[in-house]
């Protein structure tokens, strides 16, 4: 039976509200990150964060993921199974900063860690490196408190550089990337990791000399 226009409007409003909660969750996390960043700058005259990007997944991407995962059910099912509707990517200069920031954020009383995937300790076969975490933060609404999941991706500038190029290549070849290219990408990921290690060593040396 076709939905009535009233049902469609209700669906639209429901979806907008659903996304709004993620938008609020994102704001909470962004505030936490910007406070840590400012405090670091003030205390240590050093900012471990190079840049922060955040986004709420589009309707189309959510719909595609719902299909891919074969989910059916309402918003509650989507919330339970899709954890990256709100996502924040935190890019740091050094690997040590990645872990430091992760520790500082996840130690906060109102942040609950749901899942951690450390692709820095264990890179993906492609060479992909980043520290992923799904956390929930409470958002206080007039209707009550909701605990909103947010996916955090922590990485270094070198890891970010690699991941964006790799993403572009996969997009260009529509997943079917020639073997020569994937091999080169994996090798480049190794070089990026080596560069990270070297830069960090240099950074330490300079700091220790102070
Ligand atoms: P998704 O269902 O795709 O979110 O996978 P998952 O739940 O197993 O999460 P996973 O930790 O593997 O990846 C989540 C996100 O990390 C992706 O949406 C990408 O943003 C990023 N990512 C993971 N693997 C790669 C990779 O090989 N290359 C690039 N460029 N990004 C990746
Ligand atoms: Mg994802």
Spell out the key features of this protein.
single chain; 210 residues; alpha+beta; 5-stranded mixed sheet; 55% helix; 22% strand; flat; binds guanosine-5'-triphosphate; binds magnesium ion
Oligomer kind: single chain
Number of helices: 6
The computed structural class is: alpha+beta
- Percent in strands: 15-25%
Order of helices and strands: HEHHEHEEEHH
Low-confidence stretches: none
Compounds present? Answer: guanosine-5'-triphosphate, magnesium ion
Radius of gyration: 20 Å
What is the total tally of β strands?
A: 5
| Physical arrangement of strands within the biggest beta sheet | 1-2-5-4-3
- Main sheet makeup: 5 strands, mixed
* Helix coverage percent: 55-70%
What is the straight-line distance between the termini?
74 Å
Query: What's the pLDDT, averaged over the residues?
Result: 94
Per the principal axes of the C-alpha atoms, what is the gross shape?
Answer: flat
Q: What is the compact description of this entry?
A:
The chain starts with a helix and ends with a helix. The chain contains 6 helices and 5 strands.
Please characterize this protein's 3D structure.
This protein has 210 residues and is of the alpha+beta class. 55% of the residues lie in helices and 22% in strands. The chain is built from 6 helices and 5 strands. The chain has helices spanning 5-44, 59-68, 75-81, 95-106, 157-172, 179-209, and strands at residues 49-56, 86-92, 112-118, 131-141, 144-156. The chain has a 5-stranded mixed beta sheet with strand order 1-2-5-4-3. A hairpin with a 2-residue loop joins strand 4 (131-141) and strand 5 (144-156). Helix 5 (157-172) packs antiparallel against helix 6. The radius of gyration is 20 Å and the shape is flat. 21% of the residues are buried. The structure holds guanosine-5'-triphosphate (GTP) and magnesium ion.
């Amino acid at each position: 039976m076709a939905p009535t226009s009233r049902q469609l409007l209700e669906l639209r409003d429901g979806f907008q509200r659903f996304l709004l909660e993620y938008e609020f969750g994102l704001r909470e996390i962004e505030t936490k990150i910007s406070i840590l960043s400012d405090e670091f700058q003030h205390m240590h005259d050093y900012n471990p964060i190079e840049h922060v990007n955040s986004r709420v997944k589009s309707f189309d991407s959510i719909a595609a993921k719902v299909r891919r995962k074969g989910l059916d059910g309402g918003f509650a099912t989507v919330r339970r199974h899709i954890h990256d509707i709100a996502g924040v990517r935190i890019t740091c200069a050094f690997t040590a900063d990645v872990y430091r920031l992760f520790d500082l954020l996840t130690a906060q009383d109102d942040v609950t860690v749901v899942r951690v995937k450390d692709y820095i300790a264990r890179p993906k076969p492609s060479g992909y490196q980043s520290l992923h975490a799904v956390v929930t933060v409470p958002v206080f609404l007039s209707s009550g408190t909701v605990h909103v999941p947010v996916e955090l991706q922590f990485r270094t500038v070198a890891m970010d550089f690699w991941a964006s190029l790799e993403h572009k290549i996969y997009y260009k070849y529509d997943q079917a990337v020639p073997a020569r290219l994937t091999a080169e990408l994996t090798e480049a990921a190794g070089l990026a990791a080596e560069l990270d290690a070297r830069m960090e060593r240099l950074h330490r040396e300079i700091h220790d000399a102070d």
